[in-house]
């Protein structure tokens, strides 16, 4: 993939993805408004967040503000670095630029409202706002799940078929894989949101979380949530198992290939190629699987909140750090940018 091809890819996807999102949002807005009219009276939600711990509200605000600032700078910086350095115009970094974009968007959907609720007494969020937050967060979670799987396949081709890498990971395939990840995220989110809107709500509803997460929203519904709960269970299980199968299969073949490498240098190079991605996968899927294992009881809500904070707020900050700290080309580009900036300031 050369400089022109990468720029062309990014331009096409940058144009198409907002169009798909706008179409989805327009359809969803129409459904939300229709559904809102059918609810009995004005429906609002109150996000409890961490309000049961008033003494730590300010420290938490400062911590989350710092994390969000690092997330924005890290992910947007990663996208800029990948576009600036021609040596990073490869399929791996093409996927990484989209992972950074998804992390930035995901964190921006969740964190500002969390920060607001830590410093104001009024923690309400409108019915439409809550549904939109769930819809957008769901898109980016599902997209990230499959982007990580796509990146595993990319590493498999790079390690197991290095001579055919540029042929296999063609311009067309890279665009197709990224587009499919976004499209599936939108499709899953629309389906889950549709069945969530089938539920009835009345008056003020207290959500025991800092985000409009499915289980917490369903818990305050006035109607039977059985179908909605089953739909999200099937969807989440399918997404998790299918993505993990792609990842595990890719790394089994990578491990077999690496074990056949005779030289220590080749072994180290193959390991360093996959180390950052393995770290990101372990943190992301480890947190999600932990949430699956938490029992659904009142005593477990704090654990759910902490785990939710980790994968909605902390992980988007960690990904650019994981990929930049272990990568010489990224660090070199950042150093050159800093040196150029310092030289300009001196002049």
UniProtKB/TrEMBL annotation:
GO terms for cellular component: plasma membrane. The chain crosses the membrane at residues 57-81, 131-153, 173-197, 241-258, 270-292, 304-325. InterPro entries: GPCR_Rhodpsn, GPCR_Rhodpsn_7TM, Olfact_rcpt. Residues 74-323 form the G-protein coupled receptors family 1 profile domain. GO terms for molecular function: G protein-coupled receptor activity; olfactory receptor activity. The keyword Ion transport does not apply. It is a multi-pass membrane protein. SUPFAM superfamilies: Family A G protein-coupled receptor-like. Belongs to the G-protein coupled receptor 1 family. Coiled coil: none annotated. It is found in: Cell membrane; Membrane. Putative odorant or sperm cell receptor. PANTHER family: OLFACTORY RECEPTOR. It comes from Hipposideros armiger. The gene is LOC109378016. Keywords: Cell membrane, G-protein coupled receptor, Membrane, Olfaction, Receptor, Sensory transduction, Transducer, Transmembrane, Transmembrane helix. It holds the Pfam family 7tm_4. This is Olfactory receptor. The lineage of its organism: Eukaryota, Metazoa, Chordata, Craniata, Vertebrata. Its main location: membrane.
């Amino acid at each position: 993939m050369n400089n022109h091809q990468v720029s062309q890819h990014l331009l096409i996807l940058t144009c198409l993805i907002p169009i798909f999102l706008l179409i989805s949002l327009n359809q969803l807005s129409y459904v939300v408004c229709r559904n809102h009219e059918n609810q009995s009276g004005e429906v609002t939600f109150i996000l409890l967040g961490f309000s049961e711990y008033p003494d730590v509200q300010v420290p938490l605000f400062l911590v989350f503000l710092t994390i969000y600032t690092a997330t924005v700078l890290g992910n947007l910086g990663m996208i800029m670095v990948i576009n600036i350095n021609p040596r990073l115009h490869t399929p791996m970094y093409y996927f990484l630029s989209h992972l950074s974009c998804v992390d930035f968007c995901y964190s921006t959907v969740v964190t500002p409202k969390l920060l607001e609720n830590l410093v104001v007494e009024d923690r309400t969020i409108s019915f439409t706002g809550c549904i939109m937050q769930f819809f957008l967060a769901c898109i980016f979670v599902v997209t990230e799940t499959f982007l990580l799987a796509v990146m595993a396949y990319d590493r498999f081709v790079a390690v197991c078929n290095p001579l055919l890498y540029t042929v296999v990971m063609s311009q067309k395939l890279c665009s197709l894989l990224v587009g499919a990840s976004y499209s599936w995220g939108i499709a899953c989110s629309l389906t889950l949101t549709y069945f969530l809107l089938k539920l009835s709500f009345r008056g003020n509803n207290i959500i025991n979380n800092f985000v409009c997460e499915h289980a917490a929203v369903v818990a305050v519904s006035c109607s039977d949530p059985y179908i909605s709960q089953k739909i999200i269970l099937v969807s989440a299980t399918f997404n998790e198992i299918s993505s993990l199968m792609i990842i595990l299969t890719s790394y089994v073949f990578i491990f077999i290939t690496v074990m056949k490498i005779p030289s220590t240098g080749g072994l180290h190079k193959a390991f360093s190629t996959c180390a950052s991605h393995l770290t990101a996968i372990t943190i992301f899927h480890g947190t999600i699987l932990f949430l699956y294992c938490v029992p659904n009881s009142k005593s477990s809500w704090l654990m759910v909140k902490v785990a939710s904070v980790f994968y909605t707020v902390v992980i988007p900050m960690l990904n650019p750090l994981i990929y930049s700290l272990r990568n010489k080309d990224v660090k070199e580009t950042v150093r050159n940018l800093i040196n150029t900036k310092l030289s300009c300031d001196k002049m």
